[in-house]
């Protein structure tokens, strides 16, 4: 990382307040998102095993479809934050509207693909004859809510860029409560079964999107920003999102390869892998909250032509990432005996999971650095580098992971490969941050 004068205590405290003010609500909103699927699973689970299995398959497909477009939030956050830093709120909101229009176009395209191909997609996931009809029903209905989900991503990026992570938290909580109430009413009260769960989720998602649009439209009118679609602006948003899409797809490929390798190790190992992966994902939410703060703060500093401020806050956030990783790692070690019994009572699964949990505990400081620097470079709009770095990481991880069954390393060795993957990411991100090439100031990169 490029050297900068040591920040006085007062400056560090200011940075700390900014990070906490953005990261804590962001963490709440991040955690609220997976609660939608958990609530649906709890409600649908009482209908029967086939219905729950169908929901699981459809939810996996929907999550994949939406997560691919997470760049709508990331790229929008960086672009809007830069313009906020430059003092041009009108251009900032105009940029956000371009992201929202792009979300609507992508959502319509996904619906056009998913509705006719739903049976084939469900079959691709190996659904049983009893679960497949429920999966198709849930997928087709829930697909109607994809435009709303993507609008929520883009609008969340707008508000994060405007340094507001509290509104997304409130909307996420409201959406979760609404989703739960509607699911109970439609599944049991209206006796719609799994279709009721899907409709309840769609309605909640459109409600969330509507709230976001009200907030953004009010901001646009206040600052005189146009609400009309702008072809050039939408095209620019799409171009900025392509590298982040490549990055996301490469990361998804890594996770899919890890799961495929775990499946080759045996039933106990793949079951233990799911437990470890669930905890790893939960820890990622905590660290990603700091990364989101990084996206918003770094973009604002660079937009304000404050390169020294960007370096200083980057260094401070890395310190936060390391400290958070150490704390989370210790919590994993201490909570191991309590965590695993929540998922299984099978001794073989426990024996496979326990040493793997030690590995991810030791890896958390590395993860903390990775998430923070990832957020910093996203905030700087350094998407092309992030894409190439993730492709390189995938190239290193794949052969190492595929060799795990050959050498009989088991699940612990697989998570050792996952830790190697994070170490490679850390190296690539650290080299970039140290070079200073990510520091491009101004309202646009």
TrEMBL record:
UniProt keyword list: Cell membrane, Membrane, Transmembrane, Transmembrane helix, Transport
The organism's place on the tree of life at top rank: Bacteria
Entry membrane topology: Multi-pass membrane protein
Regions crossing the membrane: 19-37, 57-80, 100-121, 141-162, 169-190, 196-217, 244-263, 275-299, 320-340, 352-373, 385-407, 413-431
Principal location: membrane
GO cellular component: plasma membrane
A family per Pfam: MatE
Family note: Belongs to the multi antimicrobial extrusion (MATE) (TC 2.A.66.1) family.
Protein name: MATE family efflux transporter
Subcellular location: Cell membrane
GO MF term set: antiporter activity; xenobiotic transmembrane transporter activity
InterPro entries attached to this UniProt entry: DinF-like, MATE_fam, MdtK-like
